[in-house]
Amino acid sequence: MNIHCFLTIIFFVNLSFALPRFAVQNGSSCIACHVNPTGSGLRNDYGTNVVALEELPLERWLDKGNEDWDGYISDHLQIGGDFRLQGVQYNETDSTRKSVFFPMQADIYSYLKLNNNAGLFTKIGVRGSSSLSTEYWALLSNLPQNAWLRIGRTLPNYGLRVDDHTSFIRGGNFSRTLLDLDKEGLIFGPYLNPPSILELGVPMFGGLQWTSSIGTGIVKSNEELNNLTTQFNYTGNINDNISYMGGFSYMQENNFSMLGISGGLSFGDFTYTFEADQAENWIEGNTSLALYDEIVWEIIQGIHLMGKYDYFDPKTDWQTGSISRYTFGAEIYPLNIMEIKLQLRMNQIDLENAVTPDPEYLIQTHFWF
Amino acid sequence: MLFTVSSLGFMQDKPKNLQVLDFESERDLKKYMKSISKDLGVKCKFCHDLNDKAIDTDHKKIARKMMRMQMDLNKNFFPLLGDSLNVHDDILQISCWTCHRGSKYPQTIKPKK
Fold first, then answer.
1. What is the complex's ipTM, to 2 decimals?
2. pTM of structure
3. Is B44 in Cβ contact with A50 (below 8 Å)?
């Protein structure tokens, strides 16, 4: 077995991530921890100064955190960033082992709070070896019914924004496809350019929140105003130990449509998160199905063990041709600015004579501030 | 046209629905909130609805009563030391820890052996 190791600086992800299971654990919507009311990217002062500082890191190094850092560099300007470096080892088709290390994400955020009711967000990230990715929006909040309005270039609110763009509910496989299809996952791939959207969010009653947006094309990536996305999301707690989230999402763009359910349940130190999506005409003339199931056990503060099942069937009318991926791993949060992710991935392809790159090993380090 | 920062109406996001606490800065308020969570061994969601932390929950209402009790005790029994909720690091004052000792429900009687 030959082992090839090399460093390549060719790929940066163009998306912002979140950890929806924390929302499930807290029985709250994403706005509890993120500046973006639909989650991902820059954390707010609660996300930075409470969750990341007090509730995530290993207890023995809790005192290494800076209690005064909440991202605000002035009374009104907050900054932050996410940086990820990833390594993957897998089998080439000729059964040699190959190892790849690459910088995955380098995003800097800013949020300018104009007043209690308005703010401006910008994200600048490195994309590829020579270009930048951007995301920007203005937020008007505290409207009647505590509603908010967001306008700018950003992703519409659909499903869970899990921190793994290779999950089939997001972008799936793209650089190393297993079925040799153009699309082995749904539309939220790593190179997706955020569309222009106008989004309305309304906290309704209890923990129910409704968001709806109109935006430019995502599927065709054009500037026509033809994407409609809506989501209902309900979060809550049954008692101190049990919390939950349940959601329904729908997206329509010309003849493409996608609907899904998502949510989770947290009981004590265990959190289960799921999403199931059905897309029409993502692969022209076909119905595609993507599933995501994750269970995480927080064995002690700072160390989470996880098992995950991803499934994608590009053409449900076929009798074969689906992909299943089983992932086992750990997420370690040694400090309030650092995450180390270790994963073992096994793939299963429902095709005769299919070759999988198993086992795949993944290591990712994630820094944020 | 001269366009200044102040003309945009910049202002800080003030905490809402404060009925007992009166801190000079938001930072002091957050520090005090953190001290409560540590003294009781709970996370914020024990008292707060994280979707809107200003909403009154059952535990939040109890917390207010506890804070008032603490302030009264400090004011009436330790007047020379001040009645603040927040300055009990160096001087003899009652804090949440005095009874709770890292537990949600403080022991009110000596436990049986």
1. 0.75
2. 0.87
3. yes
